[in-house]
């Protein structure tokens, strides 16, 4: 069962077919199939904090290490952590999948 993904919450328009793809490009979280199903999301939609070059706060975010502190403040990240509870896949596990 998929739950709501980051692009649905943030309404960034960077998912395939989204309103801002022509202007900003497709977000890697929406197409990263290596983590499809992680935290019950589509592609990287519920693991966006571990996917490099996502778009947040009006800017492209860099590597996992560079953006993690910002992501941990994000309400979406906190919601995923709460919704998944004991089933939450940690960033370490996600990064291994992204390898």
What's the layout of helices and strands?
Layout lengths: L5 H5 L10 H4 L3 H4 L23 E2 L2 E2 L3 H9 L2 H10 L6 H8 L1
Antiparallel strand pairs: 1-2
Structure notes:
The structure is a single chain. The protein has one domain (6-98). The protein contains six helices and two strands, in the order αααββααα. The chain has helices spanning 6-10, 21-24, 28-31, 64-72, 75-84, 91-98; strands spanning 55-56, 59-60. Strands 1-2 form a two-stranded antiparallel ribbon. The longest helix is centred in the last third of the chain and has 10 residues, at 75-84. The mean pLDDT is 92.
The run of helices and strands is HHHEEHHH
The residue ranges in which pLDDT falls below 50 over 5 or more consecutive positions are none
Largest sheet: spatial strand order: 1-2
The helix-and-strand class reads: mainly alpha
How many domain regions?
1
């Amino acid at each position: 069962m998929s739950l709501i993904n980051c692009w649905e919450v943030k309404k960034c328009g960077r998912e395939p077919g989204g309103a801002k793809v022509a202007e900003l490009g497709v977000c890697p979280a929406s197409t990263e199939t290596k983590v499809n199903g992680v935290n019950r999301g589509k592609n990287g939609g519920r693991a966006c904090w571990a996917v490099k070059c996502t778009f947040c706060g009006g800017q492209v975010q860099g590597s996992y290490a560079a953006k993690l502190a910002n992501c941990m403040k994000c309400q979406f990240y906190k919601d995923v952590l709460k919704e998944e509870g004991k089933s939450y896949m940690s960033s370490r596990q996600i990064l291994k999948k992204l390898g």
